[in-house]
Every structure is written in C-alpha cells, then in structure tokens.
Prior knowledge:
With 511 residues, chain A is mainly alpha-helical. Helices cover 71% and strands 2% of the residues of chain A.
Amino acid sequence: MVAADVEMSDTPAKTVAPAAEKVASAPPTAESILAEVKRNVTTIDKAVSGKDMRLLSRVLRGTTRVRNSISPSVLATLIRSHAMESDAKKEALATLATLPAPASTSDADNSMDVGTDGASDSPATSCSPESGAYLLILAVMLTVDARKGASDATAAVRLVDALVAHLSSLNRRTLDALTARAFFFYARVHELAGSHAGIRSQLLVAYRSATLRRDVATQATVLNALLRNYISFRLYDQADKLLSRAPFPETRSNNQLARHLYYVARVKAVQLDYSESLTCLQQAARKAPQKGALGFRTHVAVMAIVVQLLTGDIPDRSTFRVPEAPMRAALEPYLRLTAAVRVGDMSAFVETVEQFGATFDADGTRSLIGRLRHNVLKTGLRKLSASYSRISLADVAERLLLPSAAEAEAVVAKAIRDGVTEATIDHEGGWMRSTDAGDVYGGPEPSDAYHTRVTFCLNIYNEAVRALRFADGAAEEESVEALRARLKEEQELAQAIADGEVDDEEDGDDF
Amino acid sequence: MTTNVRSGLADLRKELESPKPDLARCKKLLVQLKIALTQLAGLQPGATLTADAVSELELARDVYETAVHLSILTEDIPSFERHVSLVKSYYFDYANVLPTSARAGHLLGLNLMRLIAQNRIAEFHTELELVPTELRTDSHVAYALRLEQQLTDGAYATILANASDVPDASFQFFMDTLCVTARKETADCAERAYEVLDKTTLCRLLSLDDEEDVDTLAMERGWVVDGSTIRFGGDDSGEAAVDLELSMDLIKRNMEYAKELERIV
C-alpha cells in the first residue's frame, strides 16, 4: 500500500473525507467562511437555548467544509471574541498563532482584516460553552491538519489536554455531541504524538462518567478510542475483556458503529472466531459512508478478504473491482493471494507472501495470512483428490511443498479425518486413493448456506425496523387547554373547508 | 534491602541449578523473596521511576522469572500461569524502562508451548501477537511456532518422533502432555484414513515402544487385530451423535424462522 494510504488509514472515516470533498466543491472565500462560522455559532447558541439538538448536529455535519477552508488567524479572532474563561482558550490562541496560513487562501492578510472587522461588529455576543467548544474543536482540527507528519506535536497535545479538561469540568447534556468530538481528537492527537499509551486511564474515566451521565455519543466515541488504543498495542486480551463488559450503546452515529464493528472484527479474527469477524466486517462495510472514508473502507475490505479466506471461502471477484483507484491498488496484493489460495498453489502462495510481506506487515494482516497456509494445503489436497483417482504420496508431497512423503501421509490422514477429502490411504503401496464423494445435497451444506442468507435478511429487516424514527412523544402530551384550542381550530378548519366546498360547488354551477 | 533479595535470589538459583534441587526449600526461599519484594520502594504503586526503582524492578522481574522455572519443576500449572502473567507485565508495560531480559524468549516460548499443550489455540494466537518481532526468531519461540504449524497441518508423527528434541529441559513437561494429545489424534486419523495397516507401521506412527502397546490400544478402540495387521472397523456410534446434533440444529433453526416470521406478520 502506498504511504499516503497508510496515513489515511490512521483515522478511519474522518480525515479521509476532506480530500474527496475538496475536489467536489470550490474552496469558499474567507469572507463566506467567516460568515458561516459566525452563523454556526449563533445556531449553536439557539440550539442550546431551545434545547434542539438537531440544529447542533446539523452544524457538526458541516464541520468538514469549514475545517478545510478556515485560516488560523480568522479562527483565532473568533476565539478571542468569544467570552469564555478557560486555559484551553489561551492554549488555542497560542497554538493557532504558530500555524502557517493555508496555501489555498492567498489573501491571508486580507482575511485577517475581515476577521478583525467582523469581530468588532459583534463583540463577544456569544457566550454559551457549547459554541466555545465548537470553536476550540475547530482549532484542534487545524492543528492536527497542520502538524500531520511533523514530529513536534507537543503544542497540539497541550491544546487537547486543556480542551478535554475544560469540557470534563462542565456537566451539561447539551455539550455531549461536542465532548464526543473532543475525545475523538484527544485520542487522535495523542496517537500522532506517540503518547497514547498513557491516556488509557483518562479514557476509562471519561467512559465511566459518560455512562453515568447517559452521554451515549461520548460513550461510543471513547469506547472506540479505547479499543483502537488496545489494538494498536496488540493487547487483544484486554480489548476482548473490555468488549465483553462494556456494551456498545444502542443509539449512536453510524460512523462510530462502523468503527466499532471493525475493531470487534479485528479482535475476533485474532481469536480464530472467523465467522463472527466476517459478519462484523460486512456490517462495517455497509455502515461506513459510501463516499469518502476511503482509508477506512480499504481496511475493512482488506480484513474482509483475509478473514473470508480463513473461513475457507473465496471472496467474489467483484470485491476487487472497486471504482476508486487507490483502493484497487491496495487490494492488488490480496487479489494475488486469493488466486493462490483458490487453486491451492503452495508455491504461488509462498511467493506472494514473500513479495508483499512489507505490505502485509503494514496492514497488520501478516499473522492472519500466516494462518492461511493450512487453507492452501487443504484446497490443494481437495484439488488433487478430485483430479486423480490414485496419486502417490511422494507426488502429493512435491505438489504441496511438504518435506517428505511421510509427512504428506500424515497431512492427508488428518484431512480425511477432518472431512476435507473423501479418500483412503494405502500404506503398502504408498498412495492415496480417492473414494466417490457422497451426495453433497445430502449433507448439511445446503441448509447452512440457506441459513446464512435467511439470517442476513432477517437482520436487515430488524435493523430497518429499529432505525425507523417516530415522532416525539412530547408533542402528544398536550394540556387540556391546548387540546381544547386545537379542537376548536380543527372545527373552524372543517367549517372553512365545508364552506369552500360549497364555494367550489357554486363555482362548478357556473359552468 | 535490595542486597537481601539479591543474595536470596542467588541462593534460589543455585539450588535450582543443582542436579537434584530441593524443591520444598526452593518454595520456601521464593516465599521469603516475595515478601522481601513488597518492601522495595520502587515497586510500590505510583512510585516514580528513579534509577534505584529501575534496578529494583529488574530485580523483581528476575525473581518472577526464576519463580516460573520453579513452577515447571514442581509441575504446578496454576502457579506457572500466575508467574508468567507477572513477568509479562515487566516485559511489556516496562518495555521502555527496563533492558530486555535475556530469558524473555525462553519464557514467552514456554508460555506459548503451554497454550499449545492445553489446546488453547485462540489464546495462543492472542499471546503470539504480543511477542515482539525481534523475539520471534528466538529459538524457543520459533520452536513453539513450528509445533503449532505441525499441529494444524497434522504432522503428528513428526512431533512424536522429535518429542525428545526440545530446546530446553523445561519444555519437556509440556511436551509430554502434547505427546498424549498427538498420539490420540494420530489414532483418530489412522482409524479414518486406512482400511488396514500393519502393526510395525502403526507402532512407528504412534511412537510406541513395542507392539504390545498397539494391542492394548486396539482393544480400547475396538480395532480388529488380524495377525500382524490391524483392520479398522467401521464405527457408527460417532456418526449417530453427529446426526442427532444436525437434527437438533435444524429444529432450532426452524423454530427461529417461525419466531421471526411471527414477529414480521
């Protein structure tokens, strides 16, 4: 996989999106972006006072665009004008001052002026902690983008630390969505700085308080951050224990669910629970955004291919035919691998593993692929027994690259015991004789295949039912007066319609 | 304090390395050492990592490494597991602080070997992920890796033939457990794969000492001894059990479909 892809893959689903969107829409001008951020701040304040969380989530959805086009100086001005008292504000200003203006906004100085003018027009009108958090998160995003690849990440770390401390000290339900975002970047920044071994206890504390406050957004984000943390240190044991004790919240964003499924699949694959792992990966692929998030989708696809091979299935050819070129390139080694496993060609398999060893290491699939050796053996043996009614064990050893005929005999014996092939061994003659395969429709395979499909369909149906959105129960709890007023209104309306009908009829009569 | 522990550890090692170690005395020494360890300042929770603390941590690691060896000699598996998990925390959590132990490969290989012998393959792979790349080439770890591969491939005869060829005497204990499993598996495979087999070959496959053992095994498994050959009779009791399991599965699935359909309609 090319270096760029590896970098992308570090933040599944989120940082990858900008690249795609940047191409799609022309970068907005500094003025328009300043206006948009200001509008967003007002919207957030309105959302908080009106307790309408949908407005807030709408603002958060548009973050990516803002993130790509706002310049540090403009943001600094906005933060300065915001009335909030916290260390995070000071940190943010200090960090933003060191950031270079993005190359795309050539009128950086210009925008600075606009920023100051704008600020003086509306001095510190906004004061909700939510809008402050929004601005600070934007600041963190800019820092992350600017420092990508740079070794000096201490400033960013100081900034997120201050931000998280600031948000944790506030106990407001309206902050939940923003706190979740903040924790995502908290984990991300520490990972980039290489200090993520030390944040586990902090994350666990955050998880606990999020659970106590029923803050599902933060709960989901922090749980994923923890899993990611454990997996990056290969602590699959701890990850598994965490999974079995901490349930993933039912109501959560699709992106978090996709990530969660991916991490679960990683853990299950290491523990040889391939079918469970594969189910998770397939769901993760479906829940992931269909546009953008290329790094995440690539990783899911790669894992799905390897795990599917381990279950003994061969992935569909269409899996490798993806429209996006970088993803297709990343899947190329796996296509070769699949080809080797499909025909049970041991030498091709060994060759592929040697050739793409570095790629597999980078993808973290090396040890899983090592386990595929056995599958290649099995397929190879099945092919041999299908094509020859009698074959000498020495030949089997040669075809499957086994050290000796004796070892081949043992391997064949085990394959027969496991039901891989239908054959018997003649020790005296030194060959393997295939016996007729029984009626495949007599066995449990057809019903198994049918069962997986039925389960899949039922699952989709149940998920769809669960995803239905119903009207708020609050609307129905009207007071008696309101009910009376509404009834009266309806009566009047009915009267009006009746009159209208009469009118209509009258009109009709004219013709 | 540290000097006490150090001399105690040296005593314990000397006793262990002697040709006939007095295990009861070793256990007593170990308990004393563990008590002494609790009094070291560097091992207290939340202690700062000073140079003294680091040397104390290293000492504690050495004590637990020795304890693992003692557990092998006393063939006490629960205590082996406990001590390995203690040592692992020094290996991985203090990886940046402590110098790598010379015995790390040996101990990790031994732990992998234990999981193979206990047929805990999923945990084997979880543990293997933790073994750093540079240690995978260590002879002890590589040995465990090779064994695992031979087991999955089914080369039981190779394992049995090389049973005495272990990288260290401490592996022998687990190897003995593994041999029992391998022999049973070979017998299972032979039963299915061959129609007839002569006794000498079977004897060699199972690495049994003489052909009388084969006769006993044949009696146990219901094989027909026919002069110098053995005929494997078709045994249907296993298949009946499989059939029952299949039917149960099928019934369970159908009930599930009915339940789901009920919910949809």
